[in-house]
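User: Sequence in, structure out. Go.
Assistant: Echoing your sequence, followed by the structure tokens.
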Amino acid sequence: MNKKILAVIFLIIILAITGCNSEENNRRARKTEFFMGTVVEVILYGDEEDLAKDKREKAFTKVFNEIRNLEEKFSVEKINKEHPITLDEEKTYLLRKSLYFSEITDGAFDITVGPLVKLWNISPGEDNKVPEKEEIDKVISLVNYKKIKTVAPGIIHMEDKGMFVDFGGIAKGYAADKVALILREEDINSGIINLGGNVYAFGEKTWKFGIQDPFMKRGDYLGVASLKNQSLVTSGIYERYFEENGKIYHHIFDTKTGYPVENELLSVSVISEKSLDGDALSTAAFALGLDKGIKLLENFQGAEGIFVTKNNEIFLTSGISKEDFQLVERGKYEIKKR
């Protein structure tokens, strides 16, 4: 329920910032369902013909059937050397993309992080606690994307028993891209796709989205990003965490130590042409820290980043202009150059 509430609040901010007038409000259709552990909301915009009941219902049905299919397909699967797994074309594609991001980030994004995520189990409403060091040391040996081996085309296994292929860090981005493709195929001209904060805006309109202020309550934003046929994905320490003995433990892990990442960052927001890229890159850039994270995005074509530090400083990659991002609380945050 908490996740549902948070996602709805996020969406209200989106609509408030876009400045939709009453006429525009009469020309939109919205549908919300719960998939992939989060609220999925799709909003369609257009004229009366574009949003005719039969047309929009057909589009919504195709979209949410596809998301349901992806949720089943990319649920966590355990594989080890005794039990090879056969991948269909879609899983093979997503695994190949995941291994690519694992490689270019030197494991900051690691497709085999599943055992570590399961051990910590940082989720709202759960009995969260810091695992024993012995438990972490045991599990960290299972996190290594290089131990995925190809047996034959479409058939893989892990070198060590107990390893996971976990698509959780990339599947929502992939789903957002597929939804956008489906809507275009259904002749929907404009809309917003929101998978629990993974946002994709498509069409000729430029949309404006608030980026959460990590120091403030949910719904207070520090700046506004403008998107046109682009995705916005944010990774930050305020998303999922718990506190023990005065220390905060969040859900973005250092795959070398087995503990949550500790660096100067509060959040990283990635604007990208493909939501799949933004999903993986936002996590990796956060885990790498400010300097290496910026370097990662500067070298990646089709993606830009907004880095928020614990010193109230904001660093932007070189491709972000004043029109792409604007601060709304001047005085508290300051844009710096690296």
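User: And one key feature?
Assistant: Residues 53-73 form the longest helix (21 residues).
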